[in-house]
Records
---
Amino acid sequence: MTPPKRLSFPGISSRGKSLCLFLVGFAVFFSLRGFAVNGGDTPALLDPKHPTYQIRWEEPFVFNYREPLANLLVLKVFHATGDLTLAFELVSSFCGGLWLALLLRFRGSALFWAANLLSAVTLVFVGHKELYAPAVVTLTLYLLVLMAALRPRPAAKPWHVVAAWGLAFLTHKMALFYAPGMLLLLLDPATRRLRALPRRDMEKALVALVLIALLLQIPAWLEILGLRVVSVIFFDNRVLELLTLPKCWADPVAEASEMGAFQLFYFGSLDHFKFYFGFWLMGAPVGLILIAAKWRTALSVKNLPLFCCCFLSLTWTFFWHPHMGWYDWDLFCTAAVPVNLLGGLLFSEGTAKNARNG
């Protein structure tokens, strides 16, 4: 059987390919905006007077603690266009082009592209009127840099990984679930044994973490001091209110909740598993099959970075509660990014080996 060929564009430089793919992706995603699928928070985001989720789009600068950079990007495009719906559509399409350019950097085969494109993740770039498109792009960038830093011959420094994660974290707090992936930097890329990071690398990584912390705190201090330079949006959700809980915990938490917490179902119930597996079938229909077909290779040392992030995705989505039901597809399908990357790369490796042997 002839192995699938990698996508190639003879005569075009690497940067030229990325630019072309970005422009084509942006145009295609924007032209398909009429097929946009709404998420659970879409009505609230489009309504400036929504009682529970006021973004204050008229403000010159808004710092939304849950998704600061994503919110700011849409805000500035809205101020430039005067149309909030168009702003969301432009941002999601722009991020779609960036996402395709990043996928090109993985140098995957046709199956790699199938695993990533034939997924509900792609829908966040099709005129989606929420803030998950920038989150997918920055999460993909973080995974790309993490893999580059853990090659036998590293192509990225540890502080590059921390900076990429910080960008993802400042885009959407969902990136916090993938912070443990940075612990892999303590492994030597060549031997996969524990190592002490070079002092210079450690210092730069710590500086990057401090800068991230400062960026999160400055808007809060401005608000506390009464300097109305920044409009800050805080979220007072308690962690337990966001998780799927057993009935003995869920009812007391709901009664004491200030946000009106509720549970669509309880932990371990039939509906719990229905939603969990349903979201994963939407987010990684091809990626899961590819990983299952090559599960031994998926467990290899070479694939450790993506495999660990897949484990983190499978874990946090099991405990997080979809308060909006199936309308929370965008949040849960975003978790499929590392799964689709790993599944596609497993078969890209096989393609490369067959090509060399041939």
---
Amino acid sequence: MSAPLLVADGVTDDKARCLEEAAFYDRDFNIPDAARKLNTFLPVLDAPLPGASGIFQKKLRERLSWVGGADLADHQRKLAYQHLKRGDFVRVAALGWEAVVSRECRARPRSREIQGRAGSRRG
């Protein structure tokens, strides 16, 4: 059984498992898979959770707010700021750097395409 407290409070086992798997991916810096699993889990938080799960529902939603980012670089940036607030400087450095690299990778294919066109005009 996954996330026993959530399941005991009525969350389906498959949704609770998504949360656990997302935590695994997050610890391994596999942010795209973590976001994919969390997007499956997040609708659970749209309705009030009964029992003890309701106590930490607001905090859980806050911690998972990074999933609303536009792209990988945005997810990494938001996670870096969350870890900064918690004082986890190793994860801040790793995620902050990854956010910069992801942003640059997103921006550069376009510049290479433009350079390629310019080079073909010269020759």
